[in-house]
Amino acid sequence: MARTSNTNRKEATAPSFIAWNVTTKGNKSYWHKVGACWQHKDKKGMTLQLEVLPMDGRIVLRHPMDNAGAAETAKKVGRS
């Protein structure tokens, strides 16, 4: 029987930022979640982990927010 050790597991932490790919068509912007970013423990750098690599548009890093706040921000910045 294999032994398991909890000493090698890292505690999951919420990301510092969410990475969004923003494309614009006409006067409307479309936001697609593409990854997340975590601050290093020494606060001298960050790790950006992308789930996909966008080929166009721009990548925007925003602080994560709860669902109610996300819906309100989406209305303000043109996300649907």
Structure, described:
The chain has 80 residues and is mainly beta. The chain has one domain. It contains one helix and four strands; from the N terminus they run E-E-E-E-H. It has one helix at 67-77, and strands at residues 17-25, 28-39, 46-50, 58-62. A four-stranded antiparallel β-sheet has the order 3-2-1-4, with no helix packed on it. A hairpin with a 2-residue loop joins strand 1 and strand 2. The longest helix is centred in the C-terminal third of the chain and has 11 residues, at 67-77. The chain is elongated. The relative contact order is 0.24.
Quick overview:
With 80 residues, the chain is mainly beta.
Mean pLDDT equals 81
**End-to-end gap:** 51 Å
The Rg value, from CA coordinates, equals 17 Å
Largest sheet: 4 strands, antiparallel
Note the main attributes of this structure.
4 strands, 80 residues, mainly beta, elongated
Write the layout of secondary structure elements.
Blueprint: E1 17-25, E2 28-39, E3 46-50, E4 58-62, H1 67-77
Antiparallel strand pairs: 1-2, 1-4, 2-3
